[in-house]
Structure to design on (1285 residues):
């Protein structure tokens, strides 16, 4: 390995990154857009869900319960006197559910019978269970205020995220998606581009060795990935209000570990596909989508069927997202971080071995 | 407009997409594979969760409560802990979704008929899942002692909240959108890269014919793939269908046409296929995020809600979900059809304008 | 001293046998031309010498090394310039040179001197800060050569460095390479361009993976002495050519200005006398190209079955004309006040160095580009206004043979028939006509990408002629194509012209310019000369070749 040749290759690649508008788009513009959307558009926080409250009696107790519903920040209440008023609204999707306070509410209260009915729009199951859960919460706190006994009272406390803001776990997850794009998609594309433009043939005929050519590609993208992490983290902390409870150095260490398999995957793709279009497709299907869907970012891995759960074990983003959640929301939890970093490095080692085996210093097909 | 010129171009576009078996596979297989995998992977239900229990109460009431929780359908494994340090550690390392802390007064309060408190420590790193699990626990807490729960819950249209009934119809919209978007986005860019575009421009064919010839195959492919996926939802995933297939087909057609307009604009602007793919991707992902697929539109800040209304996918999702489960009446369908029609008119005329300008 | 030894080298790719036993020696201090038609195996052989491919059988020694086993050391003694040289288009000239200097480990002390020497050598000093992607074709090739030369290798391998380069730049490249052999370097120059081969000290002539000749080009040319003649006649030169080519005793014939150049078959007695009945005969010196064609079994014949099927063009009046045509891109004037008229049944050539404005003018004429001022008319109509029926009267064949690679040959034909509004019986008849005229029958279900360059060219021409246009636009139609395929192409064009078709062609090839009735020479956006090929040659002096005329006129313009 000659450091001089490596340095020249690194310099060349860095200049190319700086001059390529599409690299800049993926490394800087798209991350900001994605972070913004995950911070503001994709919110699982329940606020202002449209809820119908059908009040079929005018008793003081019933009206106080209706007022309790109207008073929470979770719901925007549409009052009604008859369920026939709200049912069509539920079909049209203008209400996510409605609460029915029946005519014999007072009698039921006295006898300890079921008090109210909540009907939700089951077409969106997640929203439906939130509506039911929050309605239940409103009712039990109303009962408790009245000194009406509930057998077991749960006192919930959310650790690491007491305000239950989804942004706090979505934004770190989005950073993992961004790093996957830089690491896998960009790397796969730039190597494929060298094949397409014939520059690889020229490089191969120089004294530069394969490891030098590969490292010369990787180091600049490694640096770009870390710069993008730094930028995204600064945005996350200062603009999107996500706490960083662990240390910056740990964050960078974890990111560096993740870049190893991400870049390795890009190299494997480009060694197999010497064409940009196929490389882009392969990077999207094997890198971006698994990072999005099979990493525990949006969907809980535990809830998936067993074969898909096994599949997630080889998705490096899964370990990275877990580590990021920990560093951002909990702190430097070393047992967890070490385990995740080891897993990422192991996948990375396999990727590099594959890439090295598939890249030869020749044009043999 | 000349029918044989147009036909020749439409046939050419379809052959470019479908003649090569590998190209055909790249077009058709990934969406179907995604439909299969995502239908199982994309679930916000809580299943198989690991929880911790820290019980300081020696009495039988506590054990009874724990036994009941352990058998709840959402719980997988229960880890018993004996000090708060261990409990904290499990939460920190993300090993458990939540921890129940039962104080030593639990059994005494239960016997006395006073409300017995249980502390629930939820892992905020998975706040969404934890919240759903908390809902299940609350229902159990209210129904102790064989009491009836004061709140009766009914989920209309999907009584057991089967997540797949939601995901599969929605995916048919999202995936056919991406297919139509990519196919159109690549069409002009590919000809430009190959150099065949000039050849087309010196022929007597008119710009309108060129644009139509790019749109029709993409509409056809998008519509067919959408139909295939809707059928997969019906027959393979057994999602109940209660609405009108005719209205749904019309909605799918309008939706695909409006998406093709967007794709055509990307194609006219992109210099290379590379840029076209990245462009389609950079537009498609935000459209999905804003469409209300992941989270309800009314949760978003107001300006983003306006933006969401301009996205055809938002409206198509309402129609497709409603047609499957809610027997969505014609009036409601029409209320979401016209925004898509408007979007189609706007994107197609904008695309025509851009293409015509690029032609000169 | 021998620099490269080839001993029974074989190479196959799947079913295709690229090399079938090549044995040769290449000397140091000499320029060796590797010559052959498209698909002969030149690129494969060069890649084997560069260690980028492994031979299936046989031995190679390059600078005393085994290219595969000693690949790491080999790179230090071999300079290689691939066909599409790997320049980083988003790096500047300076940055490209620096990169290769570092990769090849130029000593720090020599650094400045080496780069300065190469920049001076290539005359690229004024452009050191320009991005490589913004250089002209010729400048790119010179930069590529400079990159390959950074450490003065013992062996320099050049794969078709002359493709897409105009004569002025080609002369520069040539001068540079000849200076190198003087220093003892072995230079291998692969080319399908025979005027280049003729100037090599040594040639290896290949065809279909076999070596047909190795030695001095003159040795090959010498065999044809007394078999080459120039035939002049007052009549139609194209009819004369067809007549000559139809004779069994004629090996090859081409148009040269107003004359026809004839190569007779071996052993033809009474040589010149046989032709005397056709016109005025004079002996001509043999060229390497004549020997090449002779060695490969002669030219393709002068009969175009396609043209036979085409009806004669009957319309009258000027076919293509432009007046004061100007196009600006920002401050840059790509075409400046261009005016000319192409008459019916005429072949008009547009010549000029890279970046002279040929393509810009061409694109404005066929309506692909809007003029900044002035007007262009085809068949009396301004094409910008998109009159479909005027477009029906024009056929266009683009530089890259614009074929749909994803469609089969049959589907390509069917598409072009349809897009020109043909249908039903007529459409089927025309497609059949093209299949028969160009002998495409066995290839109908192949993809164009699998075809050889020659067949691609036939197919592209078939697609452009489907609607029987009276006017034909050809944009560098034979770039990178070997001489035999090029002859076949011109046979069809000549046949069409004899039916009254008008042709406008841009080209880099000087022998192609000879086929034109008139040539417009462009330089820096302007037409600097417009005349018959013979008249242009006469301006450069007695007996000048077209290439010399070209260089003479350009240099006169540049210096005056």
């Amino acid at each position: 390995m000659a450091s001089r040749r490596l340095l020249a290759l690194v310099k060349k690649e860095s200049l190319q990154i700086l001059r390529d508008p599409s690299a800049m788009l993926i490394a800087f513009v798209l991350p900001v857009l994605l972070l913004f959307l995950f911070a503001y558009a994709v919110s699982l926080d329940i606020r202002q869900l449209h809820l119908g409250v059908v009040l079929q009696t005018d008793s003081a107790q019933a009206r106080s319960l209706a007022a309790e519903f109207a008073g929470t920040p979770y719901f925007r209440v549409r009052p009604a006197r008859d369920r026939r008023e709200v049912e069509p609204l539920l079909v049209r999707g203008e209400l996510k559910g409605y609460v029915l306070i029946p005519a014999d509410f007072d009698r039921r209260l006295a006898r300890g019978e079921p008090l109210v009915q909540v009907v939700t729009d089951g077409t969106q199951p997640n929203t439906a269970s939130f509506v039911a859960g929050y309605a239940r919460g409103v009712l039990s706190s109303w009962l408790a205020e009245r000194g009406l006994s509930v057998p077991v009272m749960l006192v919930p406390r959310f650790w690491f995220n007491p305000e239950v803001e989804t942004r706090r776990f979505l934004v770190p997850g989005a950073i993992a998606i961004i790093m996957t794009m830089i690491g896998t998609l960009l790397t796969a594309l730039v190597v494929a581009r060298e094949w397409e433009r014939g520059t690889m043939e020229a490089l191969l005929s120089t004294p530069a060795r394969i490891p030098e050519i590969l490292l010369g590609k990787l180091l600049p993208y490694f640096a770009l990935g870390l710069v993008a992490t730094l930028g995204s983290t600064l945005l996350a902390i200062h603009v999107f209000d996500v706490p960083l409870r662990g240390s910056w150095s740990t964050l960078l260490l974890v990111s560096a570990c993740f870049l190893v398999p991400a870049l390795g995957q890009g190299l494997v793709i480009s060694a197999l596909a010497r064409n940009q279009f196929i490389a882009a497709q392969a990077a999207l299907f094997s890198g971006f989508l698994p990072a999005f869907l099979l990493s525990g970012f949006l969907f809980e891995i535990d809830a998936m069927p067993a074969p898909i759960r096994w599949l997630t074990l080889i998705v490096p983003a899964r370990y990275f997202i877990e580590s990021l959640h920990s560093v951002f929301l909990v702190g430097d939890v070393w047992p967890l971080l070490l385990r995740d970093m080891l897993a990422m490095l192991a996948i990375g080692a396999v990727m590099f071995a594959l890439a090295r085996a598939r890249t030869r210093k020749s044009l043999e097909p | 407009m000349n029918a044989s010129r147009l036909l020749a171009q439409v046939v050419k576009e379809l052959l470019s997409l479908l003649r090569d078996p590998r190209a055909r596979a790249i077009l058709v297989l990934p969406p179907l594979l995604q439909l299969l995998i995502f239908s199982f992977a994309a679930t916000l239900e809580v299943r198989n969760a690991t929880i911790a229990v820290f019980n300081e109460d020696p009495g039988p009431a506590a054990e009874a409560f724990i036994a009941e929780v352990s058998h709840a359908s959402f719980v997988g494994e229960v880890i018993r802990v004996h000090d708060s340090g261990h409990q904290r550690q499990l939460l920190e390392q993300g090993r458990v979704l939540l921890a129940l802390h039962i104080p030593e007064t639990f059994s005494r309060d239960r016997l006395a008929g006073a409300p017995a408190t249980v502390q629930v420590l939820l892992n905020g790193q998975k706040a969404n899942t934890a919240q759903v699990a908390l809902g299940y626990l609350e229902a159990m807490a209210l129904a102790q002692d064989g009491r009836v729960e004061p709140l009766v819950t009914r989920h209309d249209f999907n009584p057991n909240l089967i997540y797949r009934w939601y995901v599969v119809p929605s995916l048919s919209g999202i995936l056919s959108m991406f297919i139509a978007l990519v196919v159109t986005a690549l069409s002009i860019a590919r000809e430009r890269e190959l150099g065949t575009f000039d050849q087309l421009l010196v022929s007597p064919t008119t710009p309108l014919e060129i644009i139509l010839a790019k749109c029709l195959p993409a509409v056809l492919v998008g519509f067919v793939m959408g139909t295939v996926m809707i059928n997969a939802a019906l027959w393979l995933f057994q999602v109940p269908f209660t609405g009108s297939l005719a209205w749904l087909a019309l909605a799918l057609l309008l939706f695909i046409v409006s998406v093709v307009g967007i794709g055509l604009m990307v194609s006219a602007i992109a210099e290379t296929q590379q840029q076209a793919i990245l462009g389609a991707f950079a537009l498609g992902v935000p459209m999905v995020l804003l469409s209300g697929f992941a989270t309800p539109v009314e949760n978003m800040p107001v300006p983003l809600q306006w933006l969401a209304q301009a996205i055809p996918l938002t409206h198509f999702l309402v129609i497709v979900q409603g047609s499957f489960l809610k027997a969505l009446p014609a009036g409601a369908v029409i209320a979401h059809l016209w925004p898509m029609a408007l979007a189609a008119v706007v994107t197609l005329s904008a695309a025509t304008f851009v293409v015509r300008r690029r032609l000169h | 001293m021998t620099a490269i030894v080839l001993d029974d080298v074989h190479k196959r790719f799947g079913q295709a046998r690229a090399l079938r036993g090549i044995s040769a020696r290449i000397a140091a201090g000499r320029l060796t031309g590797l010559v052959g038609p498209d698909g002969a195996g030149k690129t494969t052989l060069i890649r084997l010498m560069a260690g980028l491919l492994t031979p299936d059988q046989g031995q190679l020694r390059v600078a005393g090394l085994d290219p595969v086993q000693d690949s790491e050391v080999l790179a230090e003694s071999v300079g290689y310039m691939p066909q599409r040289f790997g320049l980083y288009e988003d790096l500047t000239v300076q940055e490209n040179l620096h990169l290769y200097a570092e990769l090849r480990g130029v000593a720090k002390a020599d650094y400045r001197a080496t780069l300065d020497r190469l920049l001076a050598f290539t005359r690229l000093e004024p452009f050191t800060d320009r991005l490589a992607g913004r250089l002209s074709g010729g400048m790119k090739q010179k930069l590529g050569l400079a990159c390959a030369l950074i450490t003065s290798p013992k062996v320099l391998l050049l794969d078709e460095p002359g493709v897409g380069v105009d004569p002025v730049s080609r002369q520069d490249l040539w001068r540079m390479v000849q200076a190198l052999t003087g220093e003892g370097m072995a230079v291998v120059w692969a080319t399908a361009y025979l005027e280049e081969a003729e100037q090599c000290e040594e040639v290896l002539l290949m065809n279909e993976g076999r070596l047909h000749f190795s030695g001095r080009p003159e040795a090959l040319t010498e065999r044809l002495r007394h078999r080459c003649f120039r035939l002049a006649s007052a009549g139609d030169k194209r009819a004369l050519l067809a007549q000559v080519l139809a004779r069994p005793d004629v090996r090859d014939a081409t148009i040269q200005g107003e004359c026809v150049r004839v190569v007779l078959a071996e052993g033809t007695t009474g040589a010149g006398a046989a032709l005397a009945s056709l016109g005025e005969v004079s002996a001509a010196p043999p060229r390497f190209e004549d020997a090449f064609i002779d060695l490969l079994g002669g030219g393709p014949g002068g009969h175009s079955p396609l043209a036979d099927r085409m009806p004669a063009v009957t319309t009258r009046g000027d076919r293509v004309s432009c007046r004061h045509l100007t196009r600006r891109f920002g401050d840059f004037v790509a075409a400046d006040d261009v005016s000319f008229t192409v008459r019916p049944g005429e072949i008009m050539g547009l010549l000029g160095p890279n970046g002279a404005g040929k393509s810009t003018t061409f694109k404005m004429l066929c309506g692909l580009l809007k003029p900044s001022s002035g007007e262009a008319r085809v068949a009396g109509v301004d094409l910008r206004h998109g009159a479909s029926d005027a477009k029906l009267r024009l056929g266009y064949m683009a530089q890259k043979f614009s074929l749909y690679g994803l469609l089969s040959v049959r589907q390509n034909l069917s598409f072009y028939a349809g897009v020109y509004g043909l249908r039903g019986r007529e459409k089927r008849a025309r497609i059949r006509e093209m299949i028969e005229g160009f002998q495409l029958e066995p290839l109908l279900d192949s993809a164009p990408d699998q075809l050889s360059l020659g067949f691609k060219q036939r197919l592209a021409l078939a697609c452009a002629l489907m609607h029987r246009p009276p006017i034909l636009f050809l944009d560098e139609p034979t770039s990178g194509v070997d001489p035999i395929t090029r002859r076949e192409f011109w046979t069809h064009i000549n046949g069409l012209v004899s039916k009254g078709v008008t042709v406008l062609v841009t080209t880099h090839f000087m022998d192609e310019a000879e086929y034109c009735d008139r040539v417009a020479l462009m330089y820096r956006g302007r037409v600097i000369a417009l005349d018959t090929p013979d008249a242009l040659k006469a301006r450069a002096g007695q007996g000048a070749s077209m290439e010399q005329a070209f260089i003479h006129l350009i240099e006169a313009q540049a210096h005056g």
About this structure: The mean pLDDT of chain C is 86. The CA atoms of residues 57 and 247 of chain C lie 43 Å apart. Chain C is about 35% helix and 25% strand.
